[in-house]
Amino acid sequence: MSLDLPGFADPVQGSQSTFRAVLEAMAHPGSVVTAGTDLTPPAPLCQSAAAMLLTLIDGDTSLHLAAEAEAAREWIVFHTTPRITEILGEAAFAMALTMPDLHRLAAGSDDGPEEGATLILQVQGFGHGNRFDLSGPGLATPRLVQIAGLPGNFALQWQENHARFPRGVDLILCAGTALMALPRSLRIAAVREG
Length: 194
Fold this sequence. Notes:
By secondary structure, the chain is α/β, with parallel strands linked by helices. Helix content is 23%, strand content 25%. The chain has a single domain (2-190), classed as Rossmann fold, CATH 3.40.50. It has a 7-stranded mixed β-sheet, with helices on one face. A 3-stranded antiparallel β-sheet has the order 7-6-10, with helices on one face. A hairpin with a 2-residue loop joins strand 8 and strand 9. The protein starts with 10 loop residues before the first helix and ends with a strand.
């Protein structure tokens, strides 16, 4: 039973450490930081995704769980008490194992761009897979990253998301105990081989 699996051993320290990791990742897009090393979350959650949920979600937060993450619902609800919504476009946060169409998530408004959603997405890993060129705020020079587990049309979806800036969706990618943030202000282009 997933409720047998604890959250952070020290909730205050765990949340503070994870929040600092998220801030570091957002300030330096494309950098890989560590979170959730002391967690043993229920399947299918990886440690960093579980750490994100434990840190960013609370009783005042609306959360959409993709169908493939449903097996962890009981654990998530027990530890974070979110307002679960079945409607993706109504969620402040969404947890998914495969990337949904970014246009289906809340993008905020011109008067309230901060109301844009954050997607917590599990991927297969960093340092291998598709190559992307990142540029924009937080990067003095463009950064090349490799991410395994994103859909083939990711760069196109992201370009459409970025075109709405300052509205749009922020993305936190999680794999094992590693995470990478891609804020909506970022420009992303796919790098073709050869």
